[in-house]
Amino acid sequence: xxxxxxxxxxxxFFISFVINAIALEALRRSRKLSYNVRILSINMVIADLxxxxxxxxxxxxxxxxxxxxxxxxxxxxxxxxxxxxxTYFATSFLVTxxxxxxxxxxxxxxxxxxxxxxxxxxxxxxxxxIVSLLLATLFHVENREKxxxxxxxxxxxxxYLTGLDNSSFITVGVTNLIILLINLFAYAAIxxxxxxxxxxxxxxxxxxxQKLWTIxxxxxxxxxxxxxxxxxxxxxxxxxxxxxxHVVILITSFVVFIDPILYTxxxxxxxxxxxxxxxxxxxxxxxxxxxxxxxxxxxxxxxxNFSSEESRLGNME
Length: 317
Known about the structure:
Keywords: G-protein coupled receptor, Glycoprotein, Membrane, Receptor, Transducer, Transmembrane, Transmembrane helix. This protein is mainly α. Helices cover 77% and strands 3% of the residues.
């Protein structure tokens, strides 16, 4: 039963890896997408790809010693766990950055391109990856002895991590708490803005606001509990047969599966590229989409009693 469950989890992560790989290629071809949205989405997909690959290797090496010495097995598992933590932090920070970017585009539509420039977007991505690597390194350096010990005991007593020290709680628990609060604040602010602007947005653009609502709800269902459970694990520790670790693995598999759908495939240009790659478009459909994309730009309209203004925003599509 345990082996069957392990292969099911590995299969889900493999499917998620394929979906994220397709999403990455679609983003690479979508030149008409807003630069800021495109670069953040690409980094998000890359983080999910690394996370999927790390989890697949992690599950294969964590309990299988066939043809591998114990020390090598522990080291491989340790490296894959470090990669999982690195990409987990990166994904959490990137989701936060996309939520803040979406909030700025709604709150300050006419100053958006000045506030969120391409240079600042690139810099923020570099900072996110570096900070995530530092956090993951700090966590594993602090728990290196306990990490090695737990994998040796795994084969003897069927035990897992028994708890983390105070500094590790600060690294994992406080970081996840900050990420959770920032995301909840950003999405709550987005929902408030959506309701306030609903009567001032044209009928054709209301579907865009529904997409924002869907993404906010998806975050509340997936990423929020994921952060909360990580905080609980950082405080109390985990056992291999603990319900917490099973729920975290389940939520992780759903997160990496749904992230490319929420943050990549919801754009028309990306869906067009996916259909082109999979050969799902007939010639007439391809020509119609290509003609529409030649005139493609993303707009939303703010109406008031005095004026009607139009602003180009790539992340509103």
